[in-house]
Amino acid sequence: MPGDLSDGRIVIVGASLAGLRAAETLREQGFTGSLTMVGDEPRAPYDRPPLSKQVLLGKAPADTTALPMRRDPDADWRLGVAATGVDPLEKRVMLADGESLPYDRLLIATGTRARPWPNRDEGSLDGVFTLRTSDEAGRLAERLDAGPERVLVIGAGFTGSEIASACRERGIEVTVAERGPAPLVGALGGTLAKLAAAMQRNHGVDLRTGVTVTALRGDGNGRFTGADLSDGSRVDADVCVVALGAVRNVEWLAESGLAAGPRGIACDAGCRAFNMYGIVTDDVFVAGDVSRFPHPLFGYQMLSLEHWGNAVEQAEVAAHNMVSPGPLRRPHLAVPTFWSTQFGLNIKSVGVPTYSDHVVIAQGSLEARRLAVVYGYQGRVTAAVTVDMAKSLDYYKHLIETAAPFPPPPGAADRAIAADVTIPSDVPDPSGLSHGPTVALTGYLPDRRLTVVQPTR
C-alpha cells in the first residue's frame, strides 16, 4: 500500500459476516482510504445461524436476519455482482459485469455454499432444497408452513440435524438418511454421536444410518415424491433437504495463482494468502469459511472452520494486518468455538474434536444427557464438548490453550472425581460420511501444475 498505511485502496470480496467485520475493523484501525465491498447476493450482510433455527421454526422471516453494523464502514457496496477473477500482477479484481477494481490490498472472504445434490435433474425437482442462503431458508420455511406429510433430510451433520429438529418441533414427520454410523459423528466422534442418535429417535425422527440415497424420485410433473436408499428401501416424502456439507467458493480464483482448492485458500497465521508455490503474498488476505490456516495448538494442521466465531476473529486479525507494518502484525490463534441447539439440547464445542485419539466423560453422563466430554491427542487436551453444561467450557478452553495433559486433572466446579477412564474418540474418515466435517484437518494438496514449471535462467 503506497505511503501511509492508513490510506490506499482495499477491496473485500464477500459481503457476509467476515467481510463486514473486516470492513468495520479497518475503519476502527484508522484506515481512511477507499473501501469496496463485493457480494454476489443482492442483499446486505446477514446472519446465517438463525436460518436453520428461528427461520425454519417460523419464528422469524428470512429477510430479518441482517447483521447489525458496529459502525458504518463507509464502503462502496457492489452487491448482486460476483467476482470472476484476480490479476495479482495488475492488482485488480474482475467482476461479472465486466468492471475491474484496482486494489492495494485484497481480502477474500467468499465463504461457502451448500453442496448440491449430484444429479442435477433430481436436484431440480420441486420440493428439493438446500440451506445456506437467506433465499433458500425463506423458500424452505414457506414449504414447511404448508404442512408437508414427511420431510427427508439427507446428511446428519449439524445443519441436517438442526433441520430435522425444526421439523419435529413443528410436528412434521422427518426421515434422516446418513451414510455414517450416527449423526454428528464426523464432528464429535462416536461417543457423543451415540447420544445424538438416541435424541433424534427419542424425538420421533426416522433415523437411517449406514445408508445412502441412491435416487430422488418425481411424479412425472417435476414434483419430488420420495427417494430410493442403498438398502433397497424407499422413503415417501414431499420435501427433501440436501444437507451434504459445504463447497468453498474458490472457483473464481482458478487462474489467480493462489493456493485455492476444494478445501479453501491456504494462508499463514497472519491471514496472508499463499500462492500455488507455497510463497506467502503480502497484499492478498483471507478470512472466514473459505480460509485454511495453520494452528500451533493443533500440530500446525491446516484448519478449515465453518464457525461463526472464527469468521469474526479471523476477519479482525486480517483487517489489522492489512493496515499494519510487519512488526505490528498479529497471528490468528483463537481456539475454535462452536454451538448448536437441537432436540432440546445445547451443544457447545471448544478446540478441534476431530484432532483427537481418545475422549473421556469428565462431567455428567450420557444417561443424564448433561455432560462434558474432553478430547485428547497424544497425551494432551485438544477439545471439549458440553451438552447442557456450557458454563464449564471456559475451564476446558484454558486446558487447551495451556496444552494440559490428557486425561485432565480434577478442576471444573461440579466435577467430583478425576477422569481416568478414557475411550477411543472414534472419529471416522470423512469420506465415509454424508455430511462434511465442520472442521477439516488438511495438508495442502500439491497443485499438479507445479510439475510443469521450469526455472528461468
Automatic annotation (TrEMBL):
Segments forming domain Reductase C-terminal: 338-408
A cellular-component GO term for this protein: cytoplasm
Transmembrane segments: none
Pfam families: Pyr_redox_2, Reductase_C
InterPro entries according to UniProt: FAD-oxidoreductase/Apoptosis, FAD/NAD-bd_sf, FAD/NAD-binding_dom, FAD/NAD-linked_Rdtase_dimer_sf, Reductase_C
Keywords, in A-Z order: FAD, Flavoprotein, Oxidoreductase
GO MF annotation: an example: oxidoreductase activity, acting on NAD(P)H
Co-factor requirement: FAD
Domain annotation FAD/NAD(P)-binding: ranges: 9-315
Protein name: Pyridine nucleotide-disulfide oxidoreductase
Organism: Streptomyces olivochromogenes
Taxonomic lineage from the root: Bacteria, Bacillati, Actinomycetota, Actinomycetes, Kitasatosporales
Gene name linked to the record: hcaD_3
